[in-house]
Design goal:
Layout (H helix, E strand, L loop, with lengths): L2 H10 L2 H36 L3 H13 L2 E2 H8 L3 H13 L3 E5 L7 E5 L1 H21 L5 H16 L2
Antiparallel strand pairs: 1-3, 2-3
Helix pairs in contact: 3-6, 4-5
Amino acid sequence: MTVEHHHSSNLHSSEPHSMAAHSTDHALNHVIIEFYEKLSSWEHAIVRDKGFSLSQVHTIELLGVHGAMRMKELADKIGVTTGTLTVQIDKMVEAQWVVRRPHETDRRSILVELTEKGQALFLEHDALHLQLTTDLTAKMSSEERIVLLNLLSRMNNEF
């Protein structure tokens, strides 16, 4: 359906339908924001107990999932400048969670990767996330969980 066709068909639809679509958009907006806030609060509570920052946890998660990464790539994924990331990585090297090493084929690039200590933190944190996911989806059927996975994946791809 083209955009023009979609808009023209909307003009012919009854008013309550477009009001329903509008209210669904608003409801979705509020539910997504509420979920984000609840997940963030949970994450903050978990991190507060461990003695590291939220951005450090996100760095550990990214390296745990993707393996060694270039500084620029890591900064882009976290949404910070490489300067900000450098300060953070310095602290994480000091804490022995990550190491820097030269890239095998690109001599100008530095890779950041988890140490054994960092890997253990990742596995521990990932297990907490998995438990939360299990708890949140416990009352869903396997079909509903697959639909949720597909919808959230599609939403993530839009970013």
